[in-house]
Amino acid sequence: MNLKLPRFIDLLTSLRADQIVFVALAAAAVFAFSFGVFALVSSSRDPRRRRLAQVAQEHAPDPPRRPTLASRLGPLAALVLPRREAEKSRVSRLLLHAGYRSAHSVSTFYALKALCIVALPIAVLLSWSLFPTVTPGRLMFYAAAAGFVGSLLPSMWLDRRVLSRQRALRAGFPDALDLLVVCVEAGLGLAPAVQRVADELAFSHPALGAELTLVNAEIRAGVDRAQALRNLAERTGLADIRGLVALMAQTMRFGTSIADALRIYAEEFRDKRMQAAEEQSAKIGTKMIFPLVLCLFPSFFLVAIGPAVLRLMAAFSQLSQLGR
After folding, report:
1. How far apart are CA 91 and CA 100, in angstroms?
2. How far apart are CA 123 and CA 287, in angstroms?
3. What is the reported pLDDT for 251?
4. How many Å apart are CA 96 and CA 64, to the nearest integer?
5. Is the domain of 156 the same as that of 175?
6. How many domains is the chain built from?
7. Is residue 75 located within the same domain as residue 131?
8. Are 182 and 222 found together in one domain?
9. Is the domain of 195 the same as that of 117?
10. Are residues 157 and 205 both part of a single domain?
11. Burial class (CB in 10 A: 0-12, 13-18, 19+), 296
12. Domain-embedded: residue 116
């Protein structure tokens, strides 16, 4: 220790003043950083501070909400929003079948429709500089056609979205029905069986799994089981699920066995699927007529009759030359 102290003193005397100041500032910075980290860690672990921060956050005023997309597009939706309630209910039902359950889904849809009607003609008018040979009358016609297409695009997209989602739900419904039969026959109640099936289908068929999870959430929230199942049929719009819901409602009304009803419905649904598959296979022969006529027969006639036609053309050309 006595030997190290003179060496440290000699090191300090050999340093210049600016180096000593730099070393002192670096040491102070390291000390301040270490003290700050220590204070932060100690305050985060202090239960009193955590509780005070939680209480302050609970009693703090709500921050101002940012305007959502629906609120921003609300004035635009008023331009094309239909007056008839029947049309609104039809679009609302289609949006529900497509998986959009928000309260502002109808206004957002019509706002996007109005945006397409306005944006596409403007894009056509702005592109006039790229085609200087187009007359103004033809340009206005193209703009009107673009507006008409813009009014159809959202509806076409919504119909395709509904068909795609219903196809996904229909593909997962047989597996869900078989799993539901197994769970009910194993002794589970309706709500636990639906939740178990929803958990099993969360990865293979996420759309149907989400719908079944919502059914279980409604039952837990106090909604009647029959009403929750009817809401499922309303959200999906599938005839198969509607038939299952009607069967379940009738079973719960009369107090019969749910497992027997599900087993019978599963067998009938399996027979129905087989009949649908046989019907589709029987239509293949008729559907193959048009590809054969348009694609295969022209090439077949070209290969089979083409050489004979060429020989006939050569023979007629020789006869014409001899006649001259």
Report:
1. 11
2. 41
3. 83
4. 30
5. no
6. 3
7. yes
8. yes
9. no
10. no
11. exposed
12. yes
Domain boundary among 137, 162, 187: 162
Q: What residues make up the domain containing 256?
A: 166-277
Residues 157 and 187 in one domain: no
**CA 48/CA 68 separation, integer angstroms:** 37
Model confidence pLDDT, tens digit, residues 173-209: 888 888 888 888 888 888 888 889 888 888 888 888 8
Lowest mean pLDDT among 16-30, 49-63, 262-276: 49-63
Task: Using the structure block, give the residue that is written with the tokens 């497992």.
Answer: 259
Each residue's pLDDT tens digit, 247-262: 888 888 887 788 888 8
Tell whether 112 is covered by a domain.
yes
Neighbours of 181 (CB within 10 A): 22
Instruction: Tell me, yes or no, whether 290 lies in a domain.
Output: no
Q: Kindly report the backbone phi and psi dihedral angles of residue 103, in degrees, each rounded to the nearest multiple of 5, phi listed first.
A: -70, -25
Please state the three-class secondary structure of the chain as a single string: CCCHHHHHHHHHHHCCHHHHHHHHHHHHHHHHHHHHHHHHHHHHHCHHHHHHHHHHHHHCCCCCCCCCHHHHCHHHHCCCCCCCHHHHHHHHHHHHHHCCCCCCHHHHHHHHHHHHHHHHHHHHHHHHHHCCCCCHHHHHHHHHHHHHHHHHHHHHHHHHHHHHHHHHHHHHHHHHHHHHHHHHHCCCCHHHHHHHHHHHHHHHCHHHHHHHHHHHHHHHCCCCHHHHHHHHHHHHCCHHHHHHHHHHHHHHHHCCCHHHHHHHHHHHHHHHHHHHHHHHHHCHHHHCHHHHHHHHHHHHHHHHHHHHHHHHHHHHHHHHHHHC
Q: How far apart are CA 124 and CA 145, in angstroms?
A: 10
Same domain, 272 and 178: yes
Q: Is residue 321 part of a domain?
A: no
Closest CA to 99 of 211, 201, 209: 211
Model pTM greater than 0.90? no
Token pair of 84 as six digits:
């008839």
Tell me, yes or no, whether 115 and 216 share the same domain: no
- CA dist., res. 177 & res. 297, Å (int): 46
